[in-house]
């Protein structure tokens, strides 16, 4: 590959100029195409050169503060603790430190499938193939800046040199994004049901957002690997293969069958377009890869009928994204408020003695089905009465500690104990001992 690069360097200055113009065209074409496809009646972003790199003007979706703080090519020289994370057909991803921030850095994978495939084509050289592959990163920059949402990773900046140097990792095409933890089924199932509910809510909001465009955006390469968790929130990080227009047709409906299932959908062809096909496919894929694994399992018994109804809507695409979103939002409201609880006439708290600002040693921790951590018995509760009922119905539980730590729903984290011993001082906790 280095030989090919050396050979390319011997080309005339005219060819070099053509390459630079081609690179600029890649940027402009990707931006303009995106804006006209998902037309929200915005003016395409303008392109300019600044300090030897291409920059986009302020997007209508981007505040002037965010635009001013965007990272650029100079940031590539300031990174610390660079750690390789993953590599795909097009990109390599790294975890890096910049000051007190941890970021995700995406660059062209010069050893990836896209460049290797390109090099096998006739009259293709490394620099040509680099530019072709880099165009996918440019498309990602344009898309991420234009479809911003709390459940889509935030782009923090980018580097597009006017004259990129393949051999210099600090002078190459790059994207800077929020860093998140990758997920898999095991990690998802180890989360508390409350945290899995948060992920389900995020997914419903994301699908609703994608369906609001003139032609709903399709997540064609829908896999769990395309998402990360950042501060408990699920976020889409890979938009390489998103579809920016509805399925086109010729008088026949657009149909699809889900892999490993007998579930199929068909959307009628109207004026050569299958309106709603992308939306339904997004719903089905979300149900298959996420919802069926995370929403029904471990839910409070009183909410089983609701979670099963929502899961079914995802698996059959029987509701549109707006209706599904409303169902999930209502579920969250019921859970946060405690409306689902069958309030007992028994006042369980009367069976406990209260000690303010007191805690119990960890040696009295024990495992239970409610735990939300790798150790001890711990869960969130609406109030002390709910915690008292849980402890009362558990023969191992002799005490519980109500902390001031709250979850994303506002519920309070509670630790259940098998004994108490010498009490410990803790200003942020209240201890309840069984009488």
Give a description of the structure.
InterPro entries: Kinase-like_dom_sf (IPR011009), PKDCC (IPR042983), Prot_kinase_dom (IPR000719). It comes from Caerostris darwini. 34% of the residues are buried. This protein is α+β, with helices and mostly antiparallel strands and 435 residues long. The N terminus is likely disordered. It has 11 helices and 19 strands. The longest helix is centred in the N-terminal third of the chain and has 25 residues. Helix 8 runs antiparallel to helix 9 and helix 9 runs antiparallel to helix 10. It is globular. The chain has a 5-stranded antiparallel sheet with strand order 3-4-5-7-6, with helices on one face. Strands 15-19-17-18-16 form a 5-stranded antiparallel sheet, covered by helices on one side. A hairpin with a 3-residue loop joins strand 3 and strand 4.
């Amino acid at each position: 590959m280095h030989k090919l690069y050396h050979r390319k360097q011997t080309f005339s200055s005219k060819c070099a100029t053509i390459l630079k113009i081609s690179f600029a065209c890649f940027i402009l074409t990707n931006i303009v195409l995106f804006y006209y496809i998902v037309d929200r009646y915005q003016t395409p972003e303008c392109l300019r050169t600044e300090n030897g790199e291409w920059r986009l003007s302020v997007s209508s979706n981007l505040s002037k503060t965010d635009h001013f703080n965007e990272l650029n090519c100079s940031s590539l020289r300031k990174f610390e603790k660079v750690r390789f994370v993953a590599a795909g057909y097009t990109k390599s991803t790294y975890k890096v430190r910049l000051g007190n921030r941890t970021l995700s850095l995406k660059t062209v994978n010069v050893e990836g499938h896209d460049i290797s495939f390109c090099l096998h084509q006739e009259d293709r050289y490394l620099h040509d193939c680099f530019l072709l592959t880099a165009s996918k990163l440019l498309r990602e920059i344009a898309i991420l800046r234009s479809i911003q949402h709390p459940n889509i990773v935030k782009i923090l900046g980018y580097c597009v040199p006017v004259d990129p140097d393949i051999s210099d990792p600090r002078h190459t095409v790059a994207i800077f994004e929020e860093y998140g933890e990758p997920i898999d089924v095991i990690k998802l199932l180890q989360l508390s049901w409350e945290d899995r509910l948060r992920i389900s809510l995020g997914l419903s909001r994301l699908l609703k957002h994608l369906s609001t465009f003139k032609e709903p955006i399709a997540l064609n390469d829908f896999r769990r690997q395309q998402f990360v968790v950042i501060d408990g929130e699920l976020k889409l990080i890979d938009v390489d293969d998103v579809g920016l227009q509805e399925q086109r047709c010729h008088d026949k409906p657009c149909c699809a069958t889900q892999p490993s299932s007998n579930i199929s959908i068909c959307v009628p062809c109207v004026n050569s377009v299958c309106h709603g096909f992308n939306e339904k496919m997004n719903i089905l894929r979300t149900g298959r890869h996420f919802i069926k694994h995370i929403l029904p399992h471990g839910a409070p018994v009183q909410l089983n009928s609701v979670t099963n109804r929502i899961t079914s809507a995802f698996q059959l695409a029987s509701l549109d994204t707006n209706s599904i979103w409303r169902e999930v939002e209502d579920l969250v409201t019921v859970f946060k408020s405690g409306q689902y609880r069958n309030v007992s006439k028994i006042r369980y708290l009367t069976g406990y003695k209260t000690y303010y600002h007191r805690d119990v040693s960890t040696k009295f921790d024990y495992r239970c089905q409610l735990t939300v951590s790798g150790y001890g018995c711990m869960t969130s509760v609406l109030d002390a009465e709910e915690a008292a009922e849980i402890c009362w119905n558990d023969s191992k539980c002799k005490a519980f500690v109500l902390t001031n730590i709250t979850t994303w729903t506002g519920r309070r984290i509670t630790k259940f104990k098998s004994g108490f011993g010498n009490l410990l001082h803790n200003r942020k906790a209240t201890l309840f001992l069984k009488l």
